[in-house]
Amino acid sequence: MDFQQFSKKGMVKFFKISNFKKHIIHNIEIIGQRKLAILGNEEDNKLLLDAISSLKNKNVKVPDIAFFVTIDQRVSKKNSEIKFISDIKGMNKSIYVLITTPYTDFEKELANRWGLLSDASKNAQSLKNIGFSEDDFCMLNKPFALYSMCNAFYKLVYDFQLNARKSKSISMAKKTHEKLLTYKDKHKDKRVFLVGYRGIKLDQYNKIMNERTISYNEIYDIFPKTPQRPMYYLLSEQNHYLGNGKHIEGLECFITSDVNVFEEKFAKQPVYLDVFTDNLIEDLPSFDVVRQNYTLKKIDDLYYMLQMSIFMGFNEIYICGFDELYSAYINELEEAHLGEDFSIYAFPEQAQAILKTVDSYAKEHGIKIYSLCSKELLDVFEHKDWDEIEFNKTIIL
After folding, report:
1. Is the residue at 337 inside a domain?
2. Looking at residue 242, what is its pLDDT?
């Protein structure tokens, strides 16, 4: 169950709309003559509109909605009818903000894993930072008794499903565990290129034709333009397999254990990585750590590949094609800001912290990690330019 599935549950909708109504009625006198601004996610905004419509049908005098607000400037730039949060500074005398983003830990976890910047308490702090007081907004997902019970019920369901997925994950990983061990130190003291598909250029990709490479997911988009294929391919998201199996099944694959494939179609049996409970390198944070929220989920594949490289014994690791992971600056309140001149941004501190643990581990074990990405975007690892590298002239495969 993900956030979208949770939001579509009939019981969730019923109790959530009831919860929204109670908050609005409770604050109706505080709202006064001010119009409403809605700060939140699309799913809950729809439910809020239903709640307001229902109240108006019962002759409750709910103020009109003035506009919608977002903490993601990428959204407001695309839709002029949605205001960015900093644009409503000084409007607290004329508008009252209804926050529909998740409030409970359970909902926040679902939203984060779904890739949403979503936390009612952080949204409230953002409003306070621009001059709004607690009388100028309310958090609609702060649960009353019945909605608390609804959350608790679905958390039990979610935990049961999660444990089932973890059991399946362990089972899949055990299935190919012996094969996984054959890769341990297989490329000891060799070098490898970890190839992302965000920012990699065709001429750069062709330069590593005769190198050992690991790539992942959408790298298949470049396949029609070149005969170059990665030595190892990581499949970590189900949607990349659907419709693209023909590009993937002929490669030597590592598959995260939450992805389902038709094994019999693969030229070589894929190896599973247990991303729920396992780790390739014991002294590094577990795989599941980077799946927990929006910021870290952006680097999950890079993190998997770094662990794979160290596990395989590579002592020289080059990172390329990870220039465009972050298209906005994400601050500590999870506000996504766009600058006037830049469309891509440096890795946030939370992501850098994870990668720094890898760099520290590598240095302690005599492993060199270099970044071929823009130094302004990824400065955790020692930077190198493409023209500083002497490329292999002979075929190694």
Report:
1. yes
2. 85
186 plus 38 within the same structural domain:
no
Angle between helices 349-364 and 300-311 (to 10 degrees): 0
What CATH number is given to the structural domain containing 53?
A: 3.40.50
- The DSSP 8-state label assigned to residue 72 in this structure reads B
Bridge partner residues of 192 (DSSP)? 317
Of 116, 128, 232, the C-alpha closest to 180 is 232
Of 320 and 42, the one with more pLDDT: 320
Statement to judge: residues 187 and 278 lie in one domain: yes
For the chain, strand residue ranges (E) read: 35-39, 65-70, 82-84, 95-99, 137-139, 191-198, 213-216, 232-235, 253-256, 271-273, 316-322, 329-330, 336-337, 368-371, 382-383
- Say yes or no: 222 and 321 in one domain: yes
Task: Pull the structure tokens for residue 105.
Answer: 């830990």
**Owner of token pair 């005098």:** 61
Return the pLDDT at 187. Answer: 95
User: Model confidence at 160, in pLDDT bands (50, 70, 90)?
Assistant: confident
Distance CA 228, CA 195 (A): 12
CATH number for the domain spanning 330: value is 3.90.1480
